[in-house]
Amino acid sequence: MIQTIPAPDNVVAFRALGEVTANDYKTIIAPAVKRLVEQINEINFLFLIDTEIENFTASAWLEDAFIGLKNFGKWNRAAIVTDSDHAISFTNAFSYVVPGNFKGFKKDAFEQALEWVQGNSQKE
What we know:
It comes from Flavobacterium cupreum. InterPro entries: SpoIIAA-like, SpoIIAA-like_sf, STAS_dom_sf. This protein has helices spanning 22-40, 58-70, 85-94, 110-117; strands spanning 2-4, 12-16, 43-49, 75-81, 101-105. It has four helices and five strands, in the order ββαβαβαβα. A five-stranded mixed sheet has the order 1-2-3-4-5, sandwiched between helices. Helix 1 packs parallel to helix 2 (58-70). It starts with a strand and ends in a 7-residue tail after the last helix. It is of the alpha/beta class. The longest helix has 19 residues, at 22-40. It has a single domain (2-117), classed as 3-Layer(aba) Sandwich (Rossmann fold).
């Protein structure tokens, strides 16, 4: 399941718990991303992964990719917060192949991630 996390007006933030499905992306993430793009014409995105990566269904990964591609030129900053070193490495490498800045953070750096994604931290 995906929950919305309270965040500043220029950020959409989510927390993944338990099993994550395509429906979570379609009903929670996609509408919030669409509203943010309509409001500020860019995406600042924080995603706290509080479940095992294996709990994301294949259709959830496809929906994630669809949202990313649909908004390809709108990504500004995306912070992925997880204790998975593999997910953090993947996220950090993502900035080299797509527009925008993508950065992985450990869970104990959640506040730093939120500051960074909203643009209050210049640390890259």
